[in-house]
Design a protein that fits this description.
The chain contains two helices and eight strands, in the order ββββββαββα. The chain is mainly beta. It has a domain at 31-94: DPH Zinc finger (Microbial ribonuclease fold), CATH 3.10.660. The chain has a three-stranded mixed beta sheet, with no helix packed on it.
């Protein structure tokens, strides 16, 4: 059985000179997050999730519908993987 490999990344906190160190898994993601745990903004059709730097990860509904599963933080280099099924996206569109 292979051991899980993790590393760390230094992230600058938005609006400050402060830096924090966060763990990153072997695939380069800060975390894997269920789509139900993301906040959805109907006006911009964008999903958001808090980033440790103080900003938010973001990915649009259109990006997810085209197969994207990575949300990026616009203020730092961290990425999260979104866990979802096509049915999850249909539910969002129906609301």
């Amino acid at each position: 059985m292979a051991a899980a490999v993790s590393s760390s990344a230094v992230v600058k906190v938005v609006g400050t000179e402060e830096e924090i160190t966060v763990n990153v898994n072997d695939k380069g993601f800060y975390d894997e997050v269920e789509i139900e745990d993301l906040e959805f903004d109907e006006d911009s059709e964008t999903f958001y999730y808090p980033c440790p730097c103080g900003d938010r990860f973001q990915v649009t509904l259109e990006e997810l519908k085209s197969g994207e599963e990575i949300a990026r933080c616009p203020s730092c280099s961290l990425l999260i993987r979104i866990i979802y099924s096509p049915e999850d996206l249909e539910e969002v569109e129906d609301e």
